[in-house]
Amino acid sequence: MKIEGLPFDAYPGGGREQLEQRPGFNTRHADAPEFMRITGVTNCAYCGLPFTARFEDWLTMVLDHVVPQSVCKSMGIDAIWVWNYSNAVLACGACNGFCNRFKVEVDCTVPKTLPEFYDLRDRIFLERRNLILARRGKERTYFDTKPWDSTFQQTVLEVGAEGGTLAIVRQRNQRGTWEYWTLRDETTMLDVLPKDELGDGVALFEQSAHVDKFEDALLRLDKYPWFRFVPTTVSDEFTDLVLSEVEKRGGKEAVIEWSERLYRPQARLLP
Fold this sequence. Notes:
Elements: H1 27-39, H2 55-58, E1 62-65, H3 69-75, H4 79-82, E2 88-91, H5 93-97, H6 114-143, E3 153-161, E4 164-172, E5 178-185, H7 189-192, H8 195-198, E6 205-207, H9 214-220, E7 230-235, H10 239-262, E8 268-270
Parallel strand pairs: 7-8
Antiparallel strand pairs: 1-2, 3-4, 3-7, 4-5, 5-6
InterPro entries: HNH_nuc
Keywords: Endonuclease, Hydrolase, Nuclease
GO molecular function: endonuclease activity
């Protein structure tokens, strides 16, 4: 779920006025339910997880200070502002655990007025949300590799041309580390050309030996002009590396074309 804007916009007064003070009691039994009644907000401010649909999600709920208490103490900010519901957001346990040691820049101006405090709150929220979403992205990438499943194979690079595809695939070995290999698949030629035009003994599918590094597998593809083909799958883990290698082999024009294709809807970028 992608969240745009600030969660405070949905608060009474657009999030720019004081609400009730937090009692500071148990989140699920006092603070959070009262916050929900006042603001109408029932989901995580960072990832959008709804807390009222499933009991299991409800148990992960935290009511988070946006401007942290430690920051307020170090800057001498009025505790009334800090403990007001307008300085709070709901967060799931995962998002709240990411980057929860947020530090304000040393030269940050101490807010003297309530509008200045809300400006600080908004800036801190946006900065922390960006950090949290980046961490969630890394966790998603790791999760999608199914680290618990030793049989899982993941295509991390695939390019296509008329008649077939080239790919780099990986799978964990018994040590739990990745092994990579390349695939050449031209079996779609069977649907395009009559069998007698293919010739006898033509290998339409080829798999290389396994190697320990993605870079080594990429070198094996160099027997083909893979960088001139159409990219259809590129793991985010290797996007920067692949674009760098494309530029080395095909120049600026090639890397520009790849970049454009990777961000088109029809190109599938793995998270």
